[in-house]
Design brief:
heterodimer, A: alpha+beta, ATP Synthase, domain 1, 3 helices, B: Pyruvate Kinase, Chain: A, domain 1, five-stranded mixed beta sheet, 6 helices, 5 strands, 13% strand, F-ATPase delta subunit (chain A)
Chain lengths: 161, 296
């Protein structure tokens, strides 16, 4: 009886171990999925650190971060890859999900690498957004223009940094 | 056939014989008209195939990019074990179709899933949002009172995130307080295969009551609200992409088959046309020769 029981325990233990391996990131690794409507940047890739701007303040995510949800605000997401390479991507809006298995999903409405942003075009967009904000007649148009303005400001800031 | 030789139809046979030359000339003309129209149809289906092949390659490329996006959006619901609330029977179905037909059974497949659900008991708590005119056309007659809104102008251009967010806004501002819901769409598998699939729709309320939500840190109502709204748009975006890709691939197959069938028809018609023409020539020759022989 005891022997059989031990067998069961071993089996269970083995199964747990197997599942640990199958579920990809083991221990202190985190798998990042970073996708936008226009492109996929990372698909379940293991990275070192992610810095994200959110409405409750910018924060960095390291492996074993406490599970959380957050909403992206326009700004630059910085990803530190495993080989030490830093990748900066500008995002307009979206969500961040950190799950209990240390997997991170950053879903953006639109995202572009910082190096592909044209500074003069960004300036232009900013002045256009400003004039639209000033000429907005009703509440809804004003709110929309305010969002456009915020994004444009952040793009210019990111491009000139 | 035998009836012709039966009693009482003699006059008819005579009449037919009498009109024979006239009719034969007409058939020759009729066949050539028919042949021409089938050839035109084949041209159309062939070019439609080419167009959808080009659109399909683009849609598939887009879909590859959208897949991690959709999976990422669903991930949270799976990890946090969000379940639809049991005390709220109100459901919302979103039918992902498009405005364009001639693409096999993609639209009927989606509509069928919803129709089957609506024909089951408890359907009075279900409302449907039709994306694309096709699903409306199918569901309207029998289940018109379940439809709350219809989106059109879907399928002409590849879907964008803007389309998805407009859809999400329409769903959120429709005034229908659903407890849970499903997006029914065609999941693309390969060029020749797709299957109806569904994505869950959750409200803020069901997320708040999820069993594992307590594991998540620093949540406030505002964040959850924005999160749900954005994730609704992401899911819709993903479903739109899957649907568009299935539709184009299915249209490609459908048009390929149609071209093949038209080709077969053209072969048969050409054969009949040549035979008839030959028959007409022979008959005219016989007429001339027998006329000449009668004069001798």
């Amino acid at each position: 009886m005891a022997l059989a029981f031990r067998g069961v325990i071993r089996n269970v233990a083995r199964r747990l171990q197997v599942r640990n391996y199958a579920d990809a990131p083991k221990g202190d690794e985190m798998a990042l999925t970073f996708a936008a409507g226009n492109k996929v940047f990372y698909d379940k890739q293991v990275v070192k650190q992610i810095d994200v701007p959110s409405f409750s303040g910018a924060f960095g995510i390291l492996p074993k971060h406490v599970p959380t949800l957050a909403v992206l605000r326009p700004g630059v997401v910085t990803i530190l890859e495993n080989d030490g390479k830093q990748n900066k991507i500008f995002v307009s809006s979206g969500t961040i999900t950190v799950n209990d298995d240390s997997s991170v999903q950053v879903l953006a409405e639109e995202a572009h690498p910082l190096e592909s942003i044209d500074r003069s075009a960004a300036q232009e967009a900013l002045s256009k957004a400003q004039s639209e904000f000033n000429s907005a007649s009703n509440e809804k148009a004003k709110a929309e223009a305010a969002i456009a303005l915020e994004v444009a400001e952040e793009i210019v800031k990111a491009a000139s940094a | 056939m035998l009836g012709r030789f039966g009693p009482g139809v003699g006059t008819q046979v005579v009449a037919v014989v009498y009109h024979q030359p006239n009719r034969n000339m007409a058939t020759l003309k009729a066949i050539s008209i028919r042949l021409k129209s089938v050839k035109n149809i084949q041209k159309i289906t062939q070019s439609m195939k080419m167009v959808s092949a080009a659109k399909y390659t683009r849609a598939e490329r887009d879909l590859k990019a959208a897949r991690p996006y959709g999976e990422g959006a669903v991930q949270f619901y799976e990890r946090a074990e969000v379940t639809p609330p049991e005390d709220d029977p109100k459901q919302l179905f979103v039918a992902m179709t498009s405005d364009r037909g001639l693409c096999g059974a993609v639209h009927t497949g989606v509509s069928k899933v919803i129709r089957n659900r609506l024909s089951e008991p408890g359907a009075e708590n279900i409302k449907v949002i039709c994306v694309g005119d096709k699903s409306r056309g199918i569901l309207q007659r029998l289940y018109g009172k379940h439809i709350i809104s219809v989106a059109n102008e879907i399928g002409r251009l590849p879907p964008t995130f803007l389309d998805a967010s407009q859809l999400a806004t329409a769903i959120l501002t429709s005034g229908y307080e659903f407890g849970s819901g499903k997006i029914i769409y065609n999941k693309f598998k390969s060029v020749v295969s797709y299957a109806q699939s569904d994505l869950p729709l959750y409200t803020k309320k069901s997320i708040e009551s999820a069993s594992k939500l307590t594991a998540y840190d620093s949540l406030d109502s505002d964040v959850l609200q924005s999160y749900t709204e954005f994730s609704l748009a992401s899911l819709l975006f993903y479903a739109l992409k899957e649907g568009a890709c299935s539709e184009q691939s299915s249209r490609m197959t459908a048009m390929d088959n149609a071209s093949k069938n038209a080709g077969e028809m053209i072969d048969k018609l050409t054969l009949t046309f040549n035979r008839t023409r030959q028959a007409v020539i022979t008959r005219e020759l016989i007429e001339i020769i027998s006329g000449a022989a009668a004069l001798d």
